[in-house]
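Re: How this chain folds, sequence and tokenised backbone to follow
How to read it: Take the token row as a discrete description of the fold.
Start of record: The labelled sequence and token lines come straight after this line.
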Amino acid sequence: MKYRIAVFVSILLIILTAPTEDVFATGDRDRLKKLRDRIHKEKEKIGKVVKQEHSILSSIEAIDKRLKEKDSELRSYNKKLLQAQRNIEDTNRRLNILEERLQEGKSKLIERLRTLYKQGKTGYYKAIFTSNDYPTILRNYKYMKILTDEDNRMLNRYRTDIEELNASKLMLERYKSDVLIYRNRLKKKKGEIKEERDKKELLLASIRSERSSSERLIKELEEASSRLERLLKESARKKDITPHYGKGFVSLKGKLLWPVDGKVVGFFGTQRDPEFNTKIFKQGIEIKAPSGNDIKAVAEGKVMYADWLKGYGMVIILSHGGGYYSVYAHASETYARVGEIITGNKVIGKIGDTGSLKGAGLYFEIRHNGEPLDPLVWLRKRQ
């Protein structure tokens, strides 16, 4: 903070000691340029200081939110690309049908024209007036009218098929253009996602290499844990008038379903973090699992929270009654809605790395009236 003030003072001094407009009006443009360069450099220094003083967890959360937004856009473009490709397939099938029908209609029209040509110009009248009997003439006229109407229908159908064929060809070109557009957008969005992931990796790498940053991160993580604790204690103090399941949660100790299939890589209690070379008290466990895998409720309960939480990324918190809660963090997607009753083993989200310092996985806690409990004591034993 002191450095920032000093930088501001230096800029102020530069401006106060700068030449007036009259001096510049005389042609001293070089001094003006040098002044601007000095101000620009001082602003850059300020930017660096502000960046250093910015919350590490806030920076990670900002990156994760941008990643989620871009990932959502990526899925949307993928969906549109697949739809455009399906449209191309459907249109090609339609074109094949139309071309076959046109060929058939063309053959019929040619055959009909040959017949009319053989009959000559008066063929139509000859067919009607081949008899002097009026009823026969009338009957012949009706037959010829039917033939003529059928000829007209055949010709109109042929014209319609040609128009539809041309329209389908135009649509095909549009769908092909859509495919190119969405492929380019996908490529661009993948590049943006990579750029954001690289930013996160660089930020984490700088934290690992700088002791002061590591210490600041640990402090922020402790503050984040305290926020979560206050959130749960506040919830425990409120009376939940909505009836929900899970009243016998305490009887499930050692029998709870696992929230995700994966390997436990971080344990409850005081641990030394080898990456950041610091000791920290973990209030839950970390389970390594591939991004996109299902997160499941460990028991019946009610959703009390499903949103971003600084230091934890996207979080789902279930209330199981009696002051017991289960916490699921670092999700990429949340399917649970606040107030919703959840049955045990129901999918409530997807594995991700939001708010995570170590990549994809699930951070899982069990708390009683805000106090953390060792989840491995509560989860059923695995072979």
